[in-house]
Amino acid sequence: MNKLENARAKINEIDAEMASLWIKRMEAVREVSDFKRENGLKVLDSARESALLEKNSEAVPEQLKGYYAEFLRGVIGVSKRYQRDRAEACDGLIRLELGDRSYDILVRRGELKNAAKHLDLDRKALIVTDDGVPPEYAEILAEQCAEGYIVTLPQGEKTKDLDSFKLLLKNMLEKRFTRKDCVIAVGGGVIGDLAGFAAAAYMRGIDFYNVPTTTLSQIDSSIGGKVAVDLDGFKNTVGAFWQPKFVLIDPDVLSTLDPRQTACGLAEAVKMALCFDKELFERFESFEPGDRLDDIIASSLKIKKAVVEQDETESGLRKVLNFGHTIGHGIETAENGRLFHGECVALGMLPMCSEEVRERLKNVLSKLGLPLEISADPEKIKAAVLHDKKSQKGGVSAVRVNEVGKFEIENMTFEQLFDLLDNYLREAKK
Length: 430
Hints:
Layout: H1 3-38, H2 46-56, H3 65-91, E1 93-96, E2 103-107, E3 124-130, H4 135-143, E4 147-153, H5 162-174, E5 182-187, H6 189-201, E6 207-212, H7 215-221, E7 226-231, E8 234-241, E9 246-249, H8 259-276, H9 278-286, H10 293-310, H11 325-335, H12 341-349, H13 355-368, H14 378-387, E10 395-403, E11 406-413, H15 414-429
Parallel strand pairs: 2-9, 3-4, 3-5, 5-6, 6-9
Antiparallel strand pairs: 1-2, 7-8, 10-11
């Protein structure tokens, strides 16, 4: 055996030993993961990671320290990923990875009463809710805060304006909130958008927690960091990207919703299934979604998580989450409050599908009790689309679905987009 063969044989022996040690290490990692999960500790601990790198490099020769540090970072990275995957599988914990803006999303029944276990409530907290949300939800949170203040606003899209935004800022100012305090949204998408934007703006940004209480907000708007208010009747014209520190989703709070609100939320899940997940869409076709609502919420969040991680500020892939919204927002403005947001998104998807997909989509929407007929004035819809914040000069990036589970993003002129709408309206009348 020559020197090369001898060296390779040694490496093979060492690799076998490393594989055995790796298994033992991951067994220990599992124990750490279970302890952290049971005691509400975070997986990510950058201080401990730095200490491990420094301590374990002490015995390594100087010329190898850089290589060893790189190797150890990889080992620690895999360990953290394993811990998160295990926690997610066991406890409905989903980690949104956005560097120093990363945060956890917890989907767990009955967890509202344990909010202080997950949120830092040992400080002043402005708890923002509306009069359509059972007041006990905000009260349960306030009881867990060192100093909690509840602001209850009128229910509905009209609340999401600059006057309400100013009201929240003034409340924090009057109660001497500092940059160390926080805002908590307890409600649907309107409250989440408004409270999140107030948190983003107050003293150039304070911590924000989201506790969504509608199916729509639990499935979609609670994560991703898009916060905004409406201006002069046009949706989300003034806003920012401001990620929450934690999202607490307790499906038990959905028991107080009427079926129409539940259906609106599931419209967003259908949207994501059409674009990304053929099996999830087939689930909607084959059984009653209300029977497995927790599973649908988690599946939808995982889709959105993957998209947001790749495109946090909607410069590319995240535009696909606007499927149904381009025309849907126009319908919502034209309807002037007669239809809910999820109902308008459902209608907005129909013109953007192939004929084959559209028929399958209609069956699912009908099962959910969502509308199939666009009754608003088409000219009002078009006027609203032209003012939409997603509109580009001369056209718009439109998302189309010609096959279930797949999507296409097309740059369209407004004329091409409106032709799709007109064609659908003509077909619907036949």
